[in-house]
# Entry
Amino acid sequence: MIPQIPENPYLLLTPGPLSTSKTVRGAMTRDWCTWDDDYKQIVQKIREELIGLSGGGENYTAVLMQGSGTFAVESVMWSCLKPDSKILVLSNGAYGKRMGKIVQMIGVPHRVLSWEEGQQPDPGQVEEILQTDPAITHIGMVHSETTTGMLNRYEPHARLAEQYGKIFILDAMSSFGGIPLDITAPTVDLLISSANKCIQGVPGFGFVLARKEVLKSCKGNSKSHSLDLYDQWDAMEQDKGKWRFTSPTHTVRAFLQAISELHEEGGISARHERYWANHHSLIKGMAAVDVQPFLQEEDRSPIITAFLEPESPDFSFGVLYEKLKAEGFVIYPGKVSHAATFRIGHIGHVFPEDFERLGAALQKIRFW
# Structure
């Protein structure tokens, strides 16, 4: 006998995968043929919607790429960095480091400019490098650094890229769809995100919003067959929504439903407000049990918050995790290298009242 799948026993308070609505999950209950026009029309609709959400207009295009968001990041690097390119990677957390590791493994000239976790990237230092190293052709950075929950101020760096004629790459993995931005002001040449983040879909693919002029210049450059961003885009353009290889059809259909629900909520601005309301409710509940955030208020994001572990000898993240899971909440371990932290996300199909319940659960289980 096939066991029945129970309803969700807990909320995912993580930066993705995250808790989704029943209607998003329900959109995955039928099968699709990747060659069929009905399915390809879904893909084309998603591509159009993504450009609309970004404010990109006719100068931009959208490419969907199988796999996790990191696959999409790597596809950009394989496809857009040429042998004579040199990328400056700005890093203040694990995901900036990951971008640096990818370009190192690809073997292209690169430079990683690092700050401590919890420090904003400094435009003055970036400009100094641009003035002294004319070989740099690209600048890459992370928007929402979920290591700490910091929202990096990318705009000054994008403006420097415009000023010095560099291509600007923004990993907006956990921010796109939840934080208002205009991809054209300042110019982001390549923006990378994923289905299972602020648009509140399920895992299975990432996507790249690219300035067409930049993407066209990538033709024939990738040394990876499956991660060739230009070829993926060309296939979707020529066959109107066809992926080169088998696509995650159920995830794709669920993503279209998720976009529809984003519009129903009032768009990105309304979702942004809800995420901030979640954050404020969370901060209040944590303060009531003497747990403090890692970052100062001005650097926090509405995406995820890192908290300092209580100094009590009785505290254990493993114990906290299991006790909260039993109360219906799953949280995230820490990733800050120089401080003991844990993280709680506030994106997904979750609401301020959920964080009020979390606060009550913390009061109930407190053991430190």
